[in-house]
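Minutes, project huddle
Topic: does the predicted pose make sense with adenosine monophosphate bound?
PN asked that the exact inputs be recorded in the minutes so nobody has to dig through chat later. Recorded below.
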Amino acid sequence: MRAYPPAHYYRFKGARRPANPLQEHVLHMSFSSLGLSAEILRAVSAQGYTTPTPIQQQAIPAILEGNDLMAGAQTGTGKTAAFALPLLHKLQSARERNGRKAPRVLVLTPTRELANQVAESFRTYGSHLPLSTVVVFGGVGINPQLKQLNRNVDILVATPGRLIDHMDRQSVDLSQVEAVVLDEADRMLDMGFIHAIKRIMAKLPAKRQGLLFSATFPDNIDKLARQFLNRPVSIEVAKRNTSSECVDQQAFLVDQGRKRELLTHLIGTNNWRQVLVFTRTKHGADRLVKQLLSDGIEAMAIHGNKSQGARERALGAFKQQSIQALIATDVAARGIDIDRLPHVVNYDLPSAAEDYVHRIGRTGRAGSSGQAVSLVGSDESDKWRAIERLIRKTVPAAIVSGFEPSACRSDKTDADNVTGIRKRSGKPADARSPRSNRPRGKAPARKGQSRRRAAG
Ligand code: AMP
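Predicted holo structure (tokens), as shared on screen:
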């Protein structure tokens, strides 16, 4: 895996390396050595965190010193605490507000889900501090937000579109913002928020601290950083273990038309209890939910056409494991953080190879292990090659017995061929009797079983 940010990032003019780059001894650093207040350390310890993650080890001192920051980090690296902890500390130590109620920290995120999660993190880490966090995003009524903004706000977390609405209504005062965080900046640009971001940044005081977090560093991110950051410190963290130790990756070659059956088969035979499934389109997500339900698998969808309430219900049900499968599109899944999510399935391969990394990064987080399975249709081989090029790794590909792609089946003229394919078959690691998960309809493995009998 290449380290993030990529090499060109360090050519970014004006970027500085941290004064104290990550050294071997720093790896064993404790939270208490970072200079955070006792109240914050108490909240961190209540979360069960013992050691700061690499991004936290580097970002926290840099932010406490007042530097602007440009950090290559994805969700799952502990990046939220990397900016939330030092910003809370700074707010705490300069709490005289002169009676002002306007926010002093502004965090912009690409999606509602991420906004909610970031706000929740500020509340958790700041639970022993008298600071208030308000979150605003679209898709829900604006009136409760107006009321909240009218009270004292220390930290405002917002999606760009809804924040612009509030600016237009003059319901938010950004003149007191001391620090702004652009979280998942690459995704915000992908989603077309650049104009909104520019309008928002224009309303902030010129003297402010700017922190930019991004998983990738295309040219437009460099440009954004040049425009809005002042001699940022650049933070280097090893890329999250998305495609190495923590995530076990596997591809299954299958005809597009049989992916649903194969998914049901995999969920059933492996007894997967919590699987996040990615489809390319919202319509595809809805259709898959219906099909899985008819197979006896409890599933819900989360995508941009769903109301905020429906998204939250689906996410809540999935987190509590009252449903087995959550079917998501890329944008909706952005920022979803589920503790110890064991399985991710790429039902459709993503159009952009980088989304593969984001997707499988939902699992194998914070040191836990996870499994990422990709169902690769014969018309998706180009996309699959692009993904393997990006992650610089060959993912083991197999064919599940009974789900041979038609291209392979047409070659098969005798039993040997069938056996040959079976040798390459994916053997799900903890295959057990599906029992309650057994699809109600036709058992999907039947075809393979009859082939085996023919072969034997
Ligand atoms: P994030 O990258 O901010 O989305 O965080 C990913 C996950 O890591 C979240 O579930 C956090 O609660 C968790 N986390 C953050 N910092 C630490 C830490 N120092 N030790 C253990 N877990 C952490």
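Observations noted during the meeting:
- The longest strand covers residues 247-253.
- Residues 1-27, 240-244, 411-456 have pLDDT under 50 and may be disordered.
No decisions taken; revisit at the next huddle.
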